[in-house]
Write a structure and sequence with these properties.
By secondary structure, this protein is of the alpha/beta class. Helix content is 36%, strand content 17%. The chain has helices spanning 28-39, 43-50, 54-65, 77-80, 96-105, 137-149, 161-164, 191-208, 213-217, and strands at residues 2-5, 74-76, 106-110, 114-116, 121-123, 155-157, 174-183, 186-188, 225-226, 235-239. The strands form two sheets. Strands 1, 3, 4, 6, 7, 8, 9 and 10 form an eight-stranded mixed β-sheet that branches. The chain has a two-stranded antiparallel sheet with strand order 2-5. Helix 7 (161-164) links the parallel strand 6 and strand 7 (174-183). The longest helix has 18 residues, at 191-208. The protein starts with a strand and ends with a strand.
Length: 240
């Protein structure tokens, strides 16, 4: 089983003291190539393509233009990403057994790195599939991700719809998880709450060492509980 999370624009590169297994990037050559392409863009091009404010365009420009593959700092991905999803995780506090579970089962989808192991050191970056950049990202990553996951008996997709587009449902056994609210009989998804719940569910899966859908269904996540009537073999709804 593999559990998939989306990345986050919110990032906090840092040093960690834990000794982790060495896990390489999926295709470092291509990731470096993409960063080199981004380095060619000026501030106005970045602002337009990425829909950035002037201040954020300056920050992003500095990020790309100071990038040096062998010198720029790298942080293991699970510690590097922050924000609503990753604030629910506790990488420093997990036991050795839980870290082994993460090593075996958790992965992160990324526009720059493809399928990222949580222990793989990554560079700071800003890139997703909503940006108007012709970099051939999906065409490159999708077949590699399919190859990497094709023998998995189960893929629990906790990523966003944007990054779920990297997954081929015809070749992979994908089980999507959604979090909704029911009010006056109407079901809706509130983005921020859903992101928080995806991180919280990943945390619960790690804590309990879950390896089946039935085990996942037994969990309660931030007052969400599984709705078996809405759920199917390919989709679980957690409702509150």
């Amino acid at each position: 089983m593999k559990i998939l999370l989306a990345p986050s624009k919110s990032q906090d590169p840092k040093s960690i003291t834990l000794e982790l297994p060495q896990r390489p990037l999926m295709d470092e050559r291509f990731s470096r190539h993409v960063m080199a392409q981004l380095k060619q863009l000026d501030r106005s091009q970045l602002a337009q393509a990425m829909h950035l404010s002037e201040a954020l365009a300056d920050e992003t420009y500095r990020l790309f233009h100071t990038f040096k593959p062998t010198l720029s700092p790298r942080t293991p991905a699970l510690w590097h990403y922050t924000g609503v999803v990753y604030d629910q995780l506790m990488p420093e506090a997990y036991t050795q057994t839980q870290r082994t579970y993460i090593d075996d089962h958790l992965r992160i989808l990324s526009a720059l790195y493809g399928l990222v192991h949580p222990y793989t050191p990554i560079w700071a970056y800003r890139l997703d599939f909503t940006m108007k950049l012709d970099l051939g990202l999906k065409a490159h990553w999708k077949p590699l991700i399919t190859q990497a996951l094709k023998n998995e008996d189960l893929i629990v997709d906790l990523s966003s719809q944007e990054f779920a587009s990297l997954l081929d449902p015809k070749q992979l056994n994908i089980h999507r998880v959604e979090f909704g609210q029911v009010k006056e009989g109407k079901l809706s998804i509130i983005s921020t709450f859903a992101k928080q719940a995806r991180g919280a569910l990943a945390h619960q899966l790690i804590l309990h060492g879950v390896t089946t859908i039935e085990e996942m269904w037994s969990l309660s996540v931030l007052d969400y509980r599984v709705d078996l009537k809405r759920s199917t073999n390919q989709l679980t709804w957690f409702i509150r």
